[in-house]
Design a protein that fits this description.
Layout: H1 7-14, H2 22-31, E1 44-54, E2 64-72, E3 76-81, H3 87-94, E4 102-110, E5 121-122, E6 128-131, H4 144-149, H5 159-175, H6 192-204, E7 210-214, H7 222-236, E8 241-244, H8 248-251, E9 257-262, E10 266-269
Parallel strand pairs: 3-8, 3-9, 6-7, 7-8
Antiparallel strand pairs: 1-2, 1-4, 4-5, 9-10
Helix pairs in contact: 2-5, 5-6, 6-7
The protein binds adenosine-5'-triphosphate.
């Protein structure tokens, strides 16, 4: 999809306002500690997309046709396929920018025996972080600190909430390896790889249940690409990540599940052709 037509949406998505209660922030802070205690948790969750079709309002053609796949938590999925096949359209549905014409996008919890242990819950857009192609094009602030905190509550929020957000900011910045960089620096002066780190940090302030990346390596030189791959390898240890990319060789070592999107919006599971 042409990036210009999405610019407004993407700007607001890069900086979606945080609507967090202190309880939700605390829950998120706890979430980040889950991997260390992973062995004591029973069962697992899966993001499950079932029979999702999408036809833009006022058109006659389905861009997605009965797309079905599932991605277990803390795994790395990659969707590849020809330009114009519908990959970005699918990411827009997963992140709640558009709504499926039919089908469901849910989180299903399974017990240790592999059986569902409760009814599937609809995936809430609030729990999805998305980094669009070329996210640096939508940076709006003059400093890294302002860029990350754009859209945060300024006045009416409690001190407790602001303290939690500040902690989250610090954690996100450390997580993506931006901690050696002054938060007063102009985001536009960062190198390509560091701009991508910043775009990721914005999404990681509120730890997403699902992190989606559209072409994370596009437009970067070889060094920055290697840098972003290394960062994704690091994030994969704690997050569920879904990537759309044409850069199959560079990402292959990270991939747990892969699918090919075919023209007409048909998705099928397929090993990477590398
Ligand atoms: N709102 C819309 N109305 C009609 N057609 C659309 C709309 N949005 C996207 N399309 C068309 O849907 C198809 C799928 O587009 P999409 O951007 O999802 O493909 P893609 O696989 O992500 O491509 P690329 O790899 O080039 O990013 C394209 O043919 C595009 O022109």
């Amino acid at each position: 999809m042409a990036t210009s037509s999405l610019s407004t949406v993407q700007s607001s998505i890069n900086h979606k306002p945080l609507q967090l209660s202190p309880q939700r922030v605390s829950a998120k802070l706890n979430l980040i500690r889950i991997p260390q205690n992973h062995s004591i948790h029973c069962g697992y969750s899966c993001f499950e997309v079932k029979d999702v079709s999408y036809r833009p309002p006022g058109t006659e053609l389905n861009l997605l046709n009965k797309v079905t796949f599932s991605l277990p938590e803390r795994s790395f999925g990659l969707i590849f396929g020809q330009s114009g096949s519908g990959k970005t359209t699918l990411l827009q549905l997963l992140s709640g920018i558009s709504k499926p014409t039919s089908g469901s996008i849910c989180v299903q919890r399974y017990g240790n025996d592999g059986n569902p242990d409760k009814l599937p819950e609809q995936l809430s857009p609030e729990k999805v972080g998305i980094v669009f192609q070329f996210p640096e094009r939508y940076f709006v602030a003059d400093t890294i600190a302002d860029e990350v905190t754009f859209g945060w509550p300024r006045r009416k929020s409690s001190l407790q909430l602001r303290e939690h957000l500040a902690l989250n900011l610090q954690r996100a910045v450390n997580w993506v390896g931006l901690n050696g960089v002054s938060l007063d620096k102009d985001p536009h002066s960062l190198s390509g790889g560091y701009k991508r780190r910043l775009a990721l940090a914005i999404q990681l302030v509120e730890v997403p249940d699902l992190l989606i990346l559209d072409e994370p390596l596009a437009g970067l030189d070889w060094k920055a690409r290697a840098d972003v791959v290394k960062l994704l390898k690091h994030l994969k240890k704690e997050l569920t990540v879904l990537v759309v990319s044409h850069d199959l060789k560079e990402l292959a070592a990270l991939v747990d599940h892969s699918w090919r999107m075919e023209i007409g919006g048909f998705l099928r599971e397929e090993l990477l052709p590398v």
